[in-house]
From TrEMBL:
Domain Alcohol dehydrogenase-like N-terminal: 40-118
Gene source species: Staphylotrichum tortipilum
Record-stated family: Belongs to the zinc-containing alcohol dehydrogenase family.
Keyword ATP-binding: no
InterPro entries listed in its UniProt record: ADH-like_N, GroES-like_sf, NAD(P)-bd_dom_sf, Trans-enoyl_RdTase-like
Gene Ontology molecular function terms on file: oxidoreductase activity, acting on NAD(P)H
CDD domains membership: enoyl_reductase_like
Protein name as annotated: Alcohol dehydrogenase-like N-terminal domain-containing protein
PANTHER family according to UniProt: ENOYL REDUCTASE (ER) DOMAIN-CONTAINING PROTEIN (PTHR45348:SF3), HYPOTHETICAL OXIDOREDUCTASE (EUROFUNG) (PTHR45348)
């Protein structure tokens, strides 16, 4: 248990999309928000760290899902937070959590929700979204800076593999269990992204052994350690042909109508960078899960991004008939009651503590003020300067 957090202030600082934001303007603003009181089943958390992710850029530079419309007040950014429990709402029969005031915690939360978004000094988070930063975790070298960036994309990995692709991930994993699809090829494109690294580690742990990764060559050794049997560099001009040649040699022949790569995960969702190459690889019967939003145009200095939430509208006529496209939307993972109850409170910390999943490398974004740190992280995302790492930064100035 860490020292108790400071006394709870009536208001606190938060980072939101500026009310005057247009996708091409400097979009972030610092403002003062009332500090909420925890409702039953919630924890009030003094937020010390957060992590920035591409979704912030999609919100700020692409107005993802109405984030620039300001219909319900300022849109506070931040899908993830770490800090110390300062108060607990009344007990909630549904909440399995054993949290106490003073516990250090980390959480994947809903950005845009003023109570729980991550880029603010105090947040009220439902207990089912909270993981404890245990002494066991710290003993494994997972401190707050490492932990704070994990949940969003580890939850995404479980959601895309178990939910969108329908591959079993039983928890706890029965002794000696192997999945029926253990030998089926799973292609992970964008494997050095934060999502991709967790996807590989999740697949490896649950026994999916025929994993193919596409990422920059400098990450291949790490990805082999995470279970990739073969790695390809997407920056090489003939990468699609190289992947197809490997599939030809490694997959052998399949029964009629059986795709040689039945499972494909696009961890990036870029029309030209990932989806177009995948249209040449996916065969009828393959399931292709794509991280949403699909990026038609990436934001660049002064230019908004163009995004699409319906993967079925992208590259029509270019997918072979019978390819099944799925758009991944992790924010909806709690529709699965088991995952809602167990994923963040229990499974995420256990996977880390047992060394099954290694956190992404972190890059600490420095800056004199909260706004400066948030803006610098957003600029790094806009410049596509993030590679095999997670951007984390300090929120409250004091513990
Ligand atoms: N809808 C959802 O539920 C959901 C959930 C989580 C994330 N996402 C989305 O998924 C995307 C990835 O998120 P993230 O946090 O994992 O991002 P990230 O780690 O910041 O992504 C950076 C990585 O992308 C890789 N990359 C870029 N273009 C690529 C390409 N054409 N082929 C292969 N790799 C490429 C780079 O790989 P190299 O280093 O190898 O160059 C780099 O390491 C984002 O758009 C995010 O918004 C969606």
């Amino acid at each position: 248990m860490s020292p108790l957090p400071p006394s709870i202030p009536p208001t606190h600082l938060a980072i939101a999309l500026s009310p005057s934001s247009s996708p091409s303007s400097t979009p972030l603003a610092l403002f003062t928000s009332p500090t909420p009181t925890p409702l039953p089943g919630e924890a009030l958390i003094h937020v010390t760290w957060t992590a920035s992710s591409p979704v912030d850029l999609h919100r700020a530079a692409g107005g993802l899902l109405g984030s620039l419309e300001n219909a319900y007040g300022p849109f506070i950014l931040g899908c993830t937070l770490g800090g110390v429990v300062a108060a607990l709402g009344e007990a909630d029969a549904d909440a399995q959590s054993q949290l106490e005031v003073g516990d250090e915690v980390f959480a994947f939360v809903q950005d845009g929700e003023a109570r729980q978004a991550g880029f603010q000094e105090w947040a009220c988070v439902p207990l089912w979204k909270v993981s404890r930063l245990t002494e066991g975790l710290k003993g494994k070298g997972v401190g707050m800076e490492e932990a704070v960036g994990v949940s969003c994309n580890l939850v995404t990995a479980v959601e895309v593999v178990g939910g969108d692709l329908g591959l079993a991930l039983p928890w706890p994993k029965p002794e000696g269990w192997t999945p029926p699809e253990a030998g089926e090829m799973v292609l992970v494109w964008g494997a050095a992204s934060s999502v991709g690294m967790y996807v590989l580690q999740v697949l490896k742990y649950w026994g999916y052994g025929n994993l193919v990764a596409v990422a920059s060559e400098k990450h291949h050794e790490t990805l082999r350690g995470y279970g990739a049997r073969a790695c390809f560099d997407y920056r090489r001009p003939g990468v699609v042909e190289e992947v197809l040649a490997y599939v030809e040699s490694a997959a052998g022949s399949k029964g009629a109508g059986q795709p040689r790569v039945p499972f494909i995960i696009d961890c990036i969702g870029s029309v030209e960078g990932t989806l177009r190459p995948l249209t040449k690889i996916a065969e009828p019967g393959a399931k292709v899960a794509v991280m949403l939003p699909v990026i038609k145009v990436h934001a660049s200095e002064g230019q908004p991004s163009e995004l699409e939430m319906d993967v079925g509208k992208v590259l029509p006529g270019e997918w072979k008939e019978g390819v099944e496209l799925k758009g991944t939307r992790t924010f909806l993972y709690a529709k699965n009651d088991f995952l809602k109850k167990h994923l963040q409170p229990e499974i995420v910390p256990a996977l880390l503590e047992q060394g099954i999943v290694e956190p992404n490398k972190v890059r600490v974004v420095e800056g004199k003020t909260l706004l400066e740190r948030a803006q610098r992280a957003l600029d790094l995302l806009r410049d596509q300067a993030v590679s095999g790492e997670r951007l984390v930064w300090r929120v409250a100035e004091e513990d």
